[in-house]
Amino acid sequence: MTIDEGRKGGIRAAWEALGRHDPASARDVNHALEAARLAFRLGDRRLVDAWIMQALALASAEGPRETAKVHLAAASVDRGAGRFSGCQKHVERALALAPDDAGLRERAADLLHAFGARQRIEKGAARQTGLTEEAEALVRRAREKSAIGDPHGAIRDLLAAKHIADEDQIWRIDLELVVLGRQHFGFLDVEALTAIGRGPDEPGRKAEIERALHRRFVAPALDHAARLANRAWDALPEAALAPLAWRLGDRFREEEGELPAPRDLRLRLLARVFPEAMLARLGDPKHHTPPPLRSSARQRAKVLQWSIRSRSPAEVLGEFDAILRDHPPSHHPHAYRGELLLWLGRVDEAEEDFRRGLAQKPRARWLHIGMGAVYVLRNEPAAALACFQRSIDCAPAVVGPTLYGVRAEAHRLRGDLPAAVEDLTRTCRDTPSRVSAWVTLWLVEDALGHAEARDAAWKELMRRAPWLLADAAEEALGLALPAIENDDARRATLEHAIRMLRGNRSSSCVTYFTREGELRTVFAGG
């Protein structure tokens, strides 16, 4: 059976056919790379590495440029598997072999940027720089997706841009989000649009109604009002700003979690009511000076937290001290550092940060969720459930999938499996990228004997986190992913996957550790 015939015969047949082929028999570079990509899709690291090595050996006979292309192909494979170190290694080798190839440099930069790495490839060398170009590229792509009728893809690009952007870009990206939301959905706030970007692909009935109302009534009125506002805004008396802000419900409080906003109330209100006009103003040469920004501890802490994908834990954790010095009243650095410490499996240190944050902000709902996660990881479900209830009491109107996902684990530890299923169903529906929830859902449905629901959860994990499963199967059982065919093997794989995730319960930055201590990332969509 050939590799192509095996692929047509299903995963198991493709894997067996590929395994019977010796990489030394590869006809050419393209054949070896095709086999490596097939092995990657099947989740067999051993086969991936063998075929990549053969592709490099064949390419070396064709010259440095061809070898550089193979290194980029290998970097792309490592990017898909969430391996920053491997991706970076192949990118550096590719650049050393073909330093003058502009197309290669551009592709290399894209691969590293996927990890949020603070790098740009220029003149054949990787050097440290800001993230302006990366964020701008994502914003441009979001506009293109919006124009061709893909608002969900556009929102996801804008959210990705926010995670890697410099702080002075965040406010403008929020404007882009609101403008896009008004155009496609009628939503007027960033939080609702963020939920759309992370949640199901289709908007609910409420979104459809709001979009229809917006297009029919609100949009024309705003277009007319914006033209008037642009002429009159600068002349609006200072005395009118505070009453206007009150009437518009402007309740800006950094410590409640808002992203950076201008210090100037005039600019902030203009952005709230007429984001399209504000974007036009930012692009106008007459207003080339950026608006004054209020430095946000929350945004700085979040961007720093995400940088763990491409930096050492010691380096990232050390930089939180600067945010704490700059924002001494803020609980956000403690919250984000505490969550990061959970990702790293350093539970006692995470608890210390959460307690420091609660000393400053006793009613910060996320800090109570973090404390609950600490107790879950310590196998103390009663204490965990008490923390989650305190979070709900603090903010009953904004209980969401973050709480439900980790509370489900407490229910499971306590033996209340129906309650766990209820919470997990909500979480997986509202934030389907939350890998930990799918893993827990499989384990709970398996314990309940619900074969159909259990198999659906496995299918979703295969789509969203295939390399987490592949790494877990190899470490737990010494097997490649296609060999995981029965429920006992799947159970052992997922129980190990939970251990690899440590304390990461994120929906947007999913990290896990191999047995050797290498941190890897699960990219959305697998």
| Largest sheet features | 2 strands, antiparallel
Strand content: under 5%
- Shape descriptor reads globular
Fraction in helix: 55-70%
Structural class: mainly alpha
What's the overall average pLDDT, rounded?
83
Number of helices: 27
Spans where pLDDT lies below 50 across 5 or more residues = 119-131, 254-259
State the distance separating the first and last CA atoms: 28 Å
Number of beta strands:
4
Task: Give a structural overview.
Helix 19 (347-360) packs antiparallel against helix 20, helix 22 (401-414) packs antiparallel against helix 23 and helix 26 packs across helix 27. The strands form 2 sheets. Strands 1-2 form a two-stranded antiparallel sheet. The protein has a two-stranded antiparallel ribbon with strand order 3-4. The protein has helices at 3-8, 11-19, 29-42, 45-60, 64-80, 84-97, 102-113, 132-147, 151-164, 167-184, 190-198, 205-232, 238-247, 265-273, 275-282, 297-306, 313-326, 332-343, 347-360, 365-377, 381-394, 401-414, 417-430, 435-448, 451-464, 466-477, 487-501, and strands spanning 119-122, 125-128, 510-513, 519-522. The chain has 27 helices and 4 strands. Helix content is 68%, strand content 3%. With 526 residues, it is mostly helical. It is globular, with a radius of gyration of 25 Å. This is Tetratricopeptide repeat protein. It comes from Polyangium sorediatum.
What are the key terms here?
two-stranded antiparallel sheet; 526 residues; two-stranded antiparallel ribbon; mainly alpha; single chain; 4 strands
